[in-house]
Amino acid sequence: MTQTDVEALELPGADLEELGPDFYRDPYPVYARLREQGPVVQVRFGPTPVWLVVGYAEGRSALADPRLVKDQGRIARAAAALMGVEALPEPEEQTFGERVLTSHLLSMDPPDHGRLRGLVGKAFTNRKVQARRARVNEVVAELFDAVAGKPEIELLADVAYPLPITVLCELLGVPVGDQAEFTRLANALNFEPPERMREIAGELADLVLTWVELRRREPGDNLLSELVRAHDVDGILSLEELVSMVFQIQSAGFGPTSHLISNGVRALMVHPDQLALLRADRSLIPAAVDEFARFDTTVHLAMLSVAAEPVELGGVLIAENDFVVVATGAGNRDPKYRANPDVLDIRASTAAHLGFGHGIHHCLGTALGKVQAEAVVAALLDRYETVELAVPAGELTHKVFPARLLDALPLRVG
């Protein structure tokens, strides 16, 4: 987005959905312009007015504020009030698949959120994740072996997509043969038109139910077997919640990890001084991965919240039933959080950045995603003396807003 484009925006009050591909490619100038109006500004997503939190301190506060809730019923009532009606029209009865897609942790508040997160949290402890590091390194080696000798690789298709799918399938205990089908359906959810969502949701639910049946017959030392026992034996998890949890772990662990890797490597390619630092000192890789998450946050808008009561934030009074979205990507580029925030600097502090969220919705798989990103960066450095973009950086395109998802990342290697 050019400086002229940014200056032409009517801010605050801009409709972010109208900004188009240039905004998808580089939203940060828009966020900076919004931040000039204050840390909390009103924008629109289509016809809906939303308080967008673009300041770091205010974003961190909002993500931990229990008055900003994600309950879907509350959000529907707020939407009805905004439209001046008593209630929204009764939607068509949801199928099992559609209910699964909307009954996930990111759309839950306590106490259900804590109950469900507690069931899976044990699989993502730092001890458990570190125990998987050797296997992650093996998978990365296998993926790079498969493209050995090629002068050009496509990092997403060749490595960054199959890696987390493989790691998560093994963690859950789902068949390797279902990886391709799951990837197809997960991508379809993001990129197919809305009228296909019911069909795709049904296919996804059916796929996950086959995994559930498999682990009923053949339980093992894996997370899916534990969830099946929680439903079948302990009765603390409904079937809908079980299927939703499995889908969410696969989906949320797949896309964000893939694009943490690709966004980070892209950033290195346009900051050769930082790449040189990593070549000289591999011990900087963990810090570099955190800096990737800060510098170009994959999920740069948090899930929609609604104010359950009036909330004062950043000098703004947010009324009950107002919608709020935290722009984590904007907060990570706030000069009040970090000096020179638009510069990639793997030696600078990334303490308490918002790249993996904050509060009760902090990304459950953060540690596992970071281990995978670290392994890919290390492999690139170890295997290739030169790594560079195979196309000009300006030609790289992003799939959708509000996530930072590259279409592809072609690299010339040697």
UniProtKB/TrEMBL annotation:
Keywords of this entry: Heme, Iron, Metal-binding, Monooxygenase, Oxidoreductase
Pfam families: p450
Top-level division of the source organism's lineage: Bacteria
Entry-linked CDD domains: CYP107-like
Record has Heme as a keyword: yes
Gene3D superfamilies named among the record's database cross-references: Cytochrome P450
Family matches, as InterPro entries: Cyt_P450 (IPR001128), Cyt_P450_B (IPR002397), Cyt_P450_CS (IPR017972), Cyt_P450_sf (IPR036396)
Family: Belongs to the cytochrome P450 family.
UniProt protein name: Cytochrome P450
Gene source species: Kitasatospora aburaviensis
